[in-house]
Amino acid sequence: MTDAPAPDGVPRVTVLFPGAGSFGREFQPLTAALGRAAWTVRYPGRYGRDFGVPAPSFDAVVRSCAEQIGRRNHERPVLCGHSYGAYVAYATAARLARAGTSVAALVVSGARAPELLEVPEKAAASHADAAVYLDDVDPVALADAPSDEWREILVDTTLQDLRLLAGFAPPPPGPLTCPVLALRGTSDPLTSDLALTPWRDVTSGPFTQRTFPGGHTDVLHSPPCTTWLSGALGELP
Length: 237
Prior knowledge:
- By secondary structure, this protein is of the alpha/beta class.
- 37% of the residues lie in helices and 12% in strands.
- Strand 1 (14-17), helix 1 and strand 2 (38-40) form a beta-alpha-beta unit.
- Belongs to the thioesterase family.
- InterPro entries: AB_hydrolase_fold, TEII, TesA-like, Thioesterase.
- This is Alpha/beta fold hydrolase.
């Protein structure tokens, strides 16, 4: 499968929101499946002249993501976020909806429903604590880093993202009418099936929940997950 076509033959663009500390590597199998119809948002401080300088607030991250989408002038994009990125994607979808830009669907992976979110205080306390947290949640993230320098960058960005996430305030109910698709890995230590289910309350539209083999992040590399998700996106109205 290459692009995810809408019924009218126009590719339905999927905007990807990486997890804490990530630059989007977790989405490689999905981007391979979707081809040109997928791109990854650039969180403030991840790229360019402000590299290493975090956004001043979670809302500033959301505002930046909404502006990036707005500049591309997509017609009803899909927003797909993993872990930290799930909350950014949700808040971005709500912000776009309030501004009159609807989304085709919201996909959330590896994230408890917003009402159940708890950012461990210790994980966001220091660089060393963030490294321990990241290693516990996603053991391959640091092990697969190409260099010691990149390991330090991953830990630093994870720490910054967790501190921003502590300031996340769920949007007021009402703006989302799109389908919401929520998924997790069977051995994900941060979620459970019960913790995923309340995502149904963020929309007045359809809700689908699925669990696939894998952990917190490597679930996105599971062929059953990739096949199901790319197929589901291709069937969106």
